[in-house]
Protein 1
Amino acid sequence: MLSEFDLIKRYFQRARPASDRTVLGIGDDCALLAPSPGRLLAVSSDMLVEDRHFFAGADPFQLGHKSLAVNLSDLAAMGAVPLGFTLALALPAADPAWLDGFSRGLFALADAHGCELVGGDTTKGPLNICITIFGELAPGQALRRDAARIGDDIWISGTLGDARLALAGCLGEIALDADAQALAATRLHAPTPRVALGRLLAEGRLAHAALDISDGLVGDLGHILAASKVGALLDVDALPAGPVLARQAPGLRRRFTAAGGDDYELCFTAPAANREAIMAAGAQCATAVTRVGRIEAGPGLRLADGDGAPLRMQLQGWDHFSDR
Ligand code: ADP
Ligand code: MG
């Protein structure tokens, strides 16, 4: 049986020299990080709980990836550069096969972003994965939710809805063939945090407000509108659907792009003068960027179809947000 300390040593403590950003990593009472002089520390936590955020028996490699991906996505939405993260883990048992898969998934993504695991806590309990991530950015460059301005374009990175479609398939809400289900499921289980795009938007001062879409676009965009005290017009037919959702009926496509969930794409607002620079930034980091609406003075969110006609949609989660 693995002891708590064997477990940490075997799966989470890697033999690497201290980097210029991590003065001291795993092993002491605290990690010591060294943000660049004059930069702000960006901090965020996200917790994944079994049976709430993922199904029991979920693939550990994908869980490792997703646990860190959702945290990196928060840094991306702020325009911050990742520095490091901590991992608080409750495990029902010290299962070597699970720990091996989980840590490999976690470190594969961590290494892709040069983001080190610097500490954490490990305890026995129902499976619960909580990561706190640290990043940095220059003062004045953060992509805050309260920064949207009237007349801004609204943009979306990547595509929306395939994660929700995969969930619908898992729950038996719809029937997808096996290939389509597998393709859509990669979006549900292995989201791609848009760190490079967020950084380019912030450092180039291209965008005003941003957030990452985790609970569905319409609800999440509502947070920007509320914080910025503005309204918006959204062209639902302009929303970029994921490759699997794009082959589904228009009604489903509208519903899952506008109010899916687990997308982990960026929604950001930017002045029209920056359109070309934003397209160039997207091309530079190989991330599609699509213009889907406009920030307006009148409060609330107005949905329109491709012809600009008002669209009434019963969106899951919409009532929950609209009464704020
Ligand atoms: P403490 O005595 O402060 O509770 P622990 O004994 O829990 O410290 O942890 C020992 C070291 O291992 C600490 O540096 C801690 O940050 C690190 N650690 C514990 N659990 C994890 C984990 N799941 N991932 C990474 N580091 C961890
Ligand atoms: Mg501890």
Protein 2
Amino acid sequence: MNPLQRPLAILSALAEEQAGLVEQLQDAHCVTHAGRDFWQGYLAGLPVVLALSRIGKVAAATTSVALIERFGAGSIVFAGVAGGVGSGVQVGDVVVGTAYVQHDMDASPLFPRYQIPLTGQTAFAADAALARALVFACVVGLQGLRHDGRAPLVHQGLVASGDRFVSGQDEMRNLVEALRSHGHEPLAVEMEGAAVAQVCHDYGLPFAAVRTISDRADDTAHVDFPVFVRDVASVYARRIITELVRALAG
Ligand code: ADE
């Protein structure tokens, strides 16, 4: 089937971020599969399936494969939170990933550091058209919002994923320096995006993601995290995805 006629999968990392989307779903029904809940229905007339990625690369890859194999997803969009590590990437901003690297992938000396073994690739690109649509959805959807007195900026660039919640200034600096010394300049760190990007690459399906910056991956990264997700990131996600599906539905 043409991927455009197949449902758009919308992944969230946390239940709070998904709740607003499930509320808007038309003809909603929930199927439990692989220990996960998958919500099928329509948003703005567009067939969608909503799921929680769960946390970390393996969990997100399992969810992605289920979305594709069991629910026929034709493309995957992820909306979640991330730690900002690029200069000028502040809490309350959003980052739309253009490419995804796994900062904890290291099969050296068998393969170059960060390279995904047997793929010859270090980074997986987001789908350019879907990422552009997400940027547009961010600009429109976040209009009028402010965080700490400042309008959210929409950044585009590299996102680094790994199975660590980065919450230390030294750890963050080392991670960024190591990536930089291999030619990668990350804007944000999170725990799932590169896994979903790799699955979509394997299946030849479009993938794009947006992350609201919840922290600076430093010593205080965890402090306001739950409150931020509830009060800020979930509002951003609902607004951005609402605009995205409106645009994609035409
Ligand atoms: N998601 C949000 N903040 C994060 C951080 N500091 N590290 C990894 N994942 C995150």
Protein 3
Amino acid sequence: MTAQTAQTAQRVDVLIVGGGFGGMYATYKFREMGLRIQSFEAGGGLGGVWYWNRYPGARVDLPSIDYSFSFSPEIEQEWTWSEQFAAQPELLRYINFVSERLSLDKHYQFNTRIERAEWDEARELWVLRTSQGQVWEAPFCIMATGPLSVPKDPEIPGLSRFKGVMHRAARWPHQEVRFEGLRVGVIGTGSTGIQIVQEVGKTAGELFVFQRTPSFTMPMRNVKLEPAYVAEVKRHYAGIREAARNSAVGGTRPQSTRGFFTCTPAQRRTLLEDAWKNGGLAMLGTFSDLLVNEEANEEVAEFVRSKIDEVVQDPVTADKLKPRGYPIFARRPCLDTSYYETFNQPNVHLVDLYEQPIVEITEKGVRTEKGEVELDMLILATGYDGLTGALTAFDVVGRGGRTVNQKWQNGAYSYLGLMMEGFPNLFMTTGPTGPAALANIVRISENDVDWIAALMVHMQHNGQATAEVMPEAEQAWMAHVGSLAKRSLLLKAKTWYLGANVKDKPLGLTLFTGGFLRYREHCAAATQDGYRKALSFTPA
Ligand code: NAP
């Protein structure tokens, strides 16, 4: 960093990038510790994915009770969820309620991207340049940039030629979008596409669903939360949070230690039927081995395929909607309210891209190998450059001028998803090689911020200026993550978990598959050991 930028820079103790759950909690936590903070968010407000993803039908797929902050007992009592699985507007209201209650947004600079982050070795400071031309510096930097914050357009020629209206799910307009009388196309049938299809199908003149890989989806069976139930939850929040923190998924979803084949075929069928009726991700928790036992997994997959036959009236459409060739739950399982039912409507058409791949987007619509589908509106629900995209989208420059892009050229590499060798005093929340996509992101965010805070306190007590993970500790963590991943069926599907959806991205499962509780235990072990085996420090 030049002397000139150093002169014009503004200085605080901690810089925080991101206004989702992780960034909000970091902002609160470090302020309460008496540190001077400055936070940044590219969006015009707080909420992260819930700020951007305003598409019709956007809804959380974990119970709202679990998908909320646990650090403030007051807020737990003051806020009341209306539905078991809250929709995006309610989630955003909650986020703004928390922000207002704790005066968080005053610490944020909105509509601001960080364009470069660089470690100044001589001065032991992170120096951040914003899209507005400012320079900020601080000894500590928190990248709370989220695993799903960089949306991805499909690699289809002609996208810019389309003369109709084009919407991207993850950049949905703030004003109401209407579909009545319109010919609408949706590309993408992951969790996002499924939520959009079932909602837009209700009012669109005609809806064309461009499906490449079908997803497994199960009934959400969302319900309004009764006052008596909410009161009961509020009385027991402490216990609910404790249970969530001690579970593999960071939530209160029941889990079982029962192996699939320990039950008779009749028992299995009864349990699967019950799970289907209960809704949510009950099925995944009904048996302990669905992500490791391929035979068990296939039986459950076949059960869900049979449900598609029960719902979808046209057998040809039903067959095309059936996912095959990858294990159920290896792609993120979707929860729907009426997805398969939507295909019974005369205005809804499934376009099977295995049968007729998309050739190009034209001025009028989508041309497949079988012809052109004319559209008034095209919606892209084509996913994200997940886990790593946010930190490879701009230059994050560590010790010796090495960037995160260089460090991750063969795939994400980090310690606990929290720190990286070569990047002193730089922290990620819900980073790659942690349990990011596989457990409740709010619980992970809180764990991560608390872990970072404890480390900062330790450094202050011991007169240390910088902390950096030692290469051996990072390698050992990566080896552990890798050996657990080998056993997981998650490897058997082409997904964003593996980086398979982004051209030329290194393939690999860089997620901790050992469950949230084990992850917390690893984090806690490092802290309890005084970081001796994991981190190296320099004196202040
Ligand atoms: P996604 O699961 O990656 O799905 C992207 C979809 O776009 C896939 O169906 C993909 O097909 C399709 N696609 C991409 N490029 C294409 C092309 N060139 N031609 C045709 N189709 C193409 O992304 P997502 O649905 O946005 O979900 C991402 C994650 O966000 C989820 O896994 C979940 O973790 C989270 N999410 C959660 C919720 C919730 O809480 N309810 C809602 C939405 C999202 P292929 O599979 O064949 O590539």
Protein 4
Amino acid sequence: MVEAPPIMDVDTVRAQFPILSRSVNGKPLVYLDNAATTQKPQAVIDTVSHFYAHENANIHRGVHYLSMNATDAYDRARATIARALNAEFEQEIIFTRGTTESINLVAHSFGARLQPGDEILITKLEHHANIVPWQILAEERGLTLRWADVTPSGEVDLDSFQSLLSEKTKLAAFNHVSNALGTINPVKEMTRLAKAAGATVLVDGAQGPPHLLVDVRDIGCDFYALSGHKVFGPDGIGVLYGRHELLETMPPYQGGGDMIERVTMEKTTFRGLPERFEAGTPNISGAIGLGAAFDYLQSLGWEEFHAHEQALLKRATERLSEIKGLTIHGTAPEKVAVVSFTMDGIHPHDIGTILDTRGVAIRAGHHCTQPLMTHFGFTGTARASFAFYNTLAEVDQLVEAIQVVHQYFS
Ligand code: 7TS
């Protein structure tokens, strides 16, 4: 007999997120802007606060107790994240400021080996963070940027992706999950195709681990980028996972303290991994807080909350589809709980503003995916993006608030 997945107790989970019990504009907060940033559980808040109250010191430099203690906590966070992503070595986890910086690190450091005429393959589904660094690099080094198409349902067109791969493709970079439409991309298959053509692969994972258990070795990618604030951890911290053999061959991203082996007036030699890519005092409390966030996610279990989120997605899709004049954009069969929509004759910003008066927080606009919006022929959408702590009742509150939008405009 197949065992049904355990049902997540959403009330217990919600009680662990203090902000979820506040009101906004006199109404209970319904927070549906999780793709922009996620709320923090008490465990993360306590970890960061405890660090500053009891453990604060700089790392890697002190001979004193607090510094060694802080260094241990920072290294433990790296180990936790390496385990959570199934990296082979802890040194494959580089702390950065977030997904954007992780991608820029690769563009700068891996990009240094690319030659005029080389190609980078991305898709029309990308966030600007996975477009602009490649455009800058292409301009600087005379590279060609190729764009795989998307299908009307908002999936990467795999035929287009495959047809654009050639021996000229040195890097393929694509997201795990689309922030604008919620599409889960077949990253394992895309990685396989790109590697078969000899390309190095970067996965923009900003929207992956908030919803999905990530196994970088199973995906087979060379780089995986993510942001702490999107996985219920602090902001200003993120991760670049990079395959050991590859990172070792890459030049440093920034120069400064902590990343050097020896500095003389003539020459500097650099430390090994991961320090070589972590110049200067890092976001120590952020890294420790991010470790706590991954511990928290592991204690909940991705499978368990994925099932809950799929129930939220199903209800939201069904109920929003019933609203006259409302169109959902992004109808891939494999989606996380993100619903992007437009309403006839109503600007997405007006939808967002009216929903806010009801305490419902969504995002409206282009979601930093202007090429995708242009491809579909609109300037923006309203986007409700859910996390495991959202409830079916909140889906209904969203729908009721959208009905108010109708009243305003009819
Ligand atoms: N890649 C994807 C797929 C994203 O969704 C985002 C942020 C980024 C990269 C950049 O992440 P950062 O943490 O470095 O800023 N996406 C969104 C969003 O959808 N709404 O606000 C930020």
